[in-house]
Design a protein that fits this description.
The chain is α/β, with parallel strands linked by helices and 623 residues long. The protein has four domains: 129 residues, Rossmann fold; 111 residues, Beta-Lactamase (2-Layer Sandwich), CATH 3.30.450; 157 residues, Heat Shock Protein 90 (2-Layer Sandwich); 111 residues, 3-Layer(aba) Sandwich (Rossmann fold). The chain is 42% helix and 23% strand. It is built from 17 helices and 25 strands. The strands form six sheets. Strands 16-17-15-14-12-18 form a six-stranded mixed beta sheet. The protein has a five-stranded parallel beta sheet with strand order 2-1-3-4-5, sandwiched between helices. A five-stranded antiparallel beta sheet has the order 7-6-10-9-8, with helices on both faces. Helix 14 links the parallel strand 19 and strand 20. Helix 10 runs antiparallel to helix 12, helix 12 packs antiparallel against helix 13 and helix 15 packs parallel to helix 16. The protein starts with 6 loop residues before the first strand and ends in a 16-residue tail after the last helix. This is Blue-light-activated histidine kinase. Keywords: ATP-binding, Kinase, Nucleotide-binding, Phosphoprotein, Transferase. One of its GO terms (molecular function) is protein histidine kinase activity. Its EC number is 2.7.13.3.
Length: 623
């Protein structure tokens, strides 16, 4: 701790010997003595220093002690300096009165008694030290008060800005505190809540209050209890109910008696809803995955039962899986809220080789729920496939009109073919007809087919959960699909060398089989990023098919390496475009599952920049 500043006394006398005598008598540790031989010198010192005592000689030339005292009393800085007059004059009541009037606190007469002088000086020395201690304590208190105020301001700011509601109860469960967070969370202001018992606030259901009061009273009575956690359902001012977590702390006096109960309240309503939604989504996902697998199993079984050879099974089964996958993709893009009927028609007809001028689709805007949308997707696929194989789309002159309308809560669809080959009713019912009929019945609808001389007509009816969205009739033609599907013997990729990058063994086998059947030479498959980079740098090929990720790793580096070499590529992925490397948005995407037609068509576009494929040196290895 630093040593205190010395106490300062002022000695004023025109005779140097008197000053030396006073200095000798008063000298002590912690005392600084300043000497002046005139009133002018004394005033200069008084302007520079704070003195605890001034000893003034009464009789001095130019300015006597009384005059100096009068001037000291007229200045704010020196007004409160104690003055003791030192005089050799005999006792005179008039002079004594004059001295006290000038501000003296005492008189000392010459010859000076050392004991009296030291005794009087000690009093003012002690008073000065006490003043110093009081000043230090005052400063310390002011500092502590400022720090306390800062801490309280920070606490209040945290309380006001906290997402928690902070409330306080007395031992009788009467509300003592209600924070800004509580006002924001529940809607009531502090004046409306403070001072009222919990049971009178209307803040929570009556069924909760008794249990809560009992619990908190027990917490206050238990001296070992410090804090607790409870889940409480509270009412907001607007009448809504909030799920809240209450974190309570008992504040006690030193003797252990409770002062209050402080409660921090966290609104967990959104968290509870999110947890419930998560459980619902997990259950729904489980249900849909199993339903999808069951649908795939049924499609495989029924397709196998109605086909005569493996090639026919592969094409038919692949087409039906594609129809299901595209419908799933559309519903996923809309977070499984449903699908627009016109969008569903366009999406399904992209799978077939339909001339856009030969199909006319029209009807009001209709929003379908997920399950009816999936079933209608398969129905549209079956109708289009049959039209391509046996009906209107199998001849250049054929056309199809697809129209729908809404009557009440019933959706009516008509698929009408014309200009195709002569129509004859089949001798036995096929899987497509069975699928259409059973799908309609599962939605409480009906289906009927007419084999007219000018073409097949299907009339379908299904129940809607709600009316169609009011809008003008939507009319559109089928989207262009890029021409006829190449057969496996078409050798559409003859002379092309294509790199396959795919980590899933079965998918890689399918890619290689389709490409080789179309006449391509396949490099790969590369199953890791490192393996693919080595092949990109060390081998020659015309194009590449790149998986969306390899064992969970991104493929940005592979796309960049292919771009540097000027090799065109396509992503083969179950992800949508938004989940693939954004820097390579120009690359086409082949969605999984894919059809041989899609794969061969896009691979051919990538590989054949010119009419003839560039020949690479024979030294390059194909696999």
């Amino acid at each position: 701790m630093a040593s205190p500043e010395p106490v300062k006394f002022l000695l004023v006398d025109d005779i140097p010997e008197n000053l030396r005598a006073l200095e000798a008598l008063l000298k002590r540790d912690g005392l600084a003595l300043y000497k002046a031989r005139s009133g002018i010198e004394a005033l200069e010192l008084l302007l520079e220093h704070d003195f605890a005592l001034a000893l003034l000689d009464v009789q001095m030339p130019d300015m006597d002690g009384f005059e100096l005292a009068e001037m000291m009393r007229g200045t704010g800085r020196t007004r409160r300096v104690p003055i003791i007059f030192v005089t050799a004059a005999a006792t005179d009541e008039g002079r004594r009165f004059k001295g006290y009037e000038a501000g003296a606190v005492d008189f000392i007469y010459k010859p000076i008694d050392p004991l009296i002088l030291k005794s009087k000086a000690d009093v003012f020395f002690s008073i000065a030290r006490q003043h110093e201690q009081l000043a230090l304590q005052k400063n310390a208190l002011a500092t502590a008060a400022a720090e306390l105020k800062g801490a309280l301001d920070r606490l209040q700011a945290h309380t006001d800005n906290s997402p928690l509601a902070i409330v306080e109860f007395d031992p009788d469960m009467r509300l003592l505190g209600w924070s800004k967070g509580a006002e924001r969370m529940f809607g009531w202001t502090a004046p409306e809540m403070i001072g009222h018992p919990l049971a009178e606030l209307g803040w929570m259901p009556d069924s909760c209050i008794a249990d809560l009061v009992t619990l908190f009273s027990a917490s206050m009575a238990d001296t070992s209890h410090q804090r607790g956690h409870d889940t409480v359902r509270c009412r907001a001012r607007d009448g809504s109910m909030l799920d809240c977590e209450w974190y309570s702390s008992v504040l006690r006096r030193p003797d252990g008696t409770p002062v209050s109960l402080s409660v921090q309240i966290l609104d967990i309503t959104d968290r509870r809803r999110a947890e419930e939604t998560q459980l619902l989504l997990i259950g729904e996902l489980n249900h849909r995955v199993k339903n999808t697998l069951a649908s795939v199993q049924a499609i495989a079984t029924q397709t196998l039962r109605h086909t005569r050879n493996p090639d026919q099974f592969s094409d038919t089964f692949s087409g039906r899986i594609q129809a299901l996958a595209r419908a799933h993709g559309m519903l996923s893009d809309r977070t499984w809220q449903g699908a627009d009927l016109m969008d569903l028609v366009h999406d399904q007809l992209r799978l077939g080789a339909v001339d856009p001028a030969r199909l006319h689709a029209s009807g009001p805007r209709v929003q379908l729920l997920p399950q009816p949308a999936l079933r209608l997707a398969l129905i549209l696929h079956e109708l289009a496939t049959n039209a391509l194989k046996y009906g209107a789309f199998s001849r250049p002159t054929g056309r199809v009109v697809l129209e729908w309308s809404v009557e009440g809560e019933q959706l009516q669809l008509r698929w009408q073919e014309s200009g195709g080959p002569p129509v004859q009713a089949p001798l036995k019912r096929g899987f497509g007809s069975t699928l259409i009929d059973s799908s309609m019945k599962s939605d409480g609808g009906t289906s009927s087919v007419s084999f007219r001389s000018d073409g097949v007509v299907w009339d379908l009816a299904m129940k809607l959960d709600g009316p169609a969205t009011p809008s003008a009739e939507r009319t559109a033609r089928a989207p262009a699909t890029g021409g006829a599907v190449p057969s496996r013997g078409a050798q559409a990729l003859d002379g092309c060398r294509i790199l396959v990058v795919e980590d899933e063994a079965l998918v890689a086998l399918e890619l290689i089989a389709v490409l080789e059947d179309a006449g391509a030479t396949v490099c790969g498959p590369a199953r890791t990023v490192e393996e693919a980079l080595a092949m990109i740098e060390g081998e020659n090929f015309h194009a590449a098919l790149l998986d969306g990720n390899l064992h969970g790793k991104p493929v940005d580096a592979l796309a960049a390496a292919l771009t540097r070499r000027g090799i065109r590529f396509a992503f083969v992925s179950g992800y949508g475009r938004e989940s693939l490397p954004a820097a390579f948005g120009h690359a086409p995407v082949i969605g999984k599952p894919f059809t041989p037609h899609q794969l061969v068509e896009i691979a051919g576009e990538l590989a054949r920049r010119e009419e003839n494929v560039v020949a690479f040196p024979a030294a390059a290895s194909p696999r």
